[in-house]
Amino acid sequence: xxxxxxxxxxxxxxxxxxxxxxxxxxxxxxxxxxxxxxxxxxxxxxxxxxxxxxxxxxxxxxxxxxxxxxxxxxxxxxxxxxxxxxxxxxxxxxxxxxxxxxxxxxxxxxxxxxxxxxxxxxxxxxxxxxxxxxxxxxxxxxxxxxxx
Length: 148
What we know:
Four Helix Bundle (Hemerythrin (Met), subunit A); about 0% strand; single chain
């Protein structure tokens, strides 16, 4: 009789284990779908996610070259600014000098803005490439399954 009693107890434990596994699987599937739908809603969060890996390499090289060119233009505009001269002459000479300095300042601001935009694009491309390196197939699926 003692043996039959043990069989009944172990059978109940197996059922409990099965219920726990089904429950964990169901919750895992629900969590996976929830995280997958969150990724879909955030699809535009990474501006270069639609590009292929080879296109990203080409874009990074192009933006890097453009950034170098814009940086040289910025440095040249700074050197022009050092050519600002003091004018103790007539008012019209001062106005002309003021307008010249305004144009130099505007070109420096434009060059700074363009260089910063180009560097930001290069940074976004590098971030996308790093994200892709870190998100292997199995790792991404496991993250979707377990991320709360």
